[in-house]
Amino acid sequence: MNKVEGLHHIAIATANMKEQIEFFTDKLGMELVALYWMHGVDKAWHGFLRLNDESSIAFVCHPDIEKIPVSLGATHAGNPAANCARGAMQHLALRVKNHDELLAMRDRLRAKGVPVLGPTDHGFCVSIYFAGPENLSLELSYSTAPIDNRAWIDPEVLALAGISDEELARYKQSSNYRDAGGAVPQPALNGPGPHMVGYPDGAYEVILGTADEIIWDNSENQPPVEVTD
To answer: Which of 60, 56, 65 is closest to 25 using CA atoms?
Structure first.
């Protein structure tokens, strides 16, 4: 059974937190709900913009981010049809309710000076496309029904991906797994992974080798402002 129920947040690096907040609040009508020092990360700060009570767009700002060069086609796609490096976000699609709301959002964006492509009908969803600050490639979409995998899995593309009929049957249904109530120990840190990267030498082994109970007990979970009402 699939226990992943939706988007909690997607984190996007920024060198200009204010510009991103301005764009997402003014151009898209979202709300800033959190802005605080990122827990456990020196000199980094976090901003959260509300999608709903359980989902957000998050931005991470650090003084060193502006020193990283931007290269279209490498670090950033720049538009929803272009390439970028593997593992990086190519574009971000946000959901609206229906066609009327899609057109209302297109009006809002255009009225605020943002060029918009579409709508275009993809069959299982309808979308518009536009740019955000720092070369973000953005999309707004709606769907009227769940995707029918009988119609939308192309045999030619299956072959291109190297997926067999047996593998397809497995991929089309959520894999079963009986959890152990949180009792499974950390796997070997020199095992197959994948593994998080970019830590200073030796830090990954220290951090991932720390007992789960210690991580929990040392969680930073208090908001920066005390609310008394």
So the answer is: 56
3-state secondary structure of 13: strand
Q: pLDDT tens, 164-182?
A: 999 999 998 888 888 899 9
**3 state DSSP class of 136:** strand
pLDDT tens-digit map of 111-140: 999 999 999 999 999 999 999 999 999 999
Partners of 140 in beta bridges: 94, 128
User: Which two three-digit tokens encode residue 118?
Assistant: 């579409």
Predicted TM-score (pTM) of the model is 0.92
Contact yes or no for 105/140 (Cβ under 8 A): yes
What the chain holds in terms of domains, given with CATH numbers, is: 8-68 (3.10.180.10)
Question: Among 49, 45, 61, 51, which Cα is nearest to 23's?
Answer: 49
Q: How far apart are CA 46 and CA 36, in angstroms?
A: 5
Q: List, in sequence order, every beta strand (DSSP E) within the chain.
A: 9-14, 31-37, 45-52, 55-61, 92-95, 117-121, 126-132, 136-142
E strands in 68-109: 92-95
Check whether the bond before 146 is cis (ω within 30° of 0). no
Q: What are phi and psi of 165, to 5 degrees?
A: -60, -40
Q: Alpha-carbon distance 72 to 83, whole Å?
A: 8
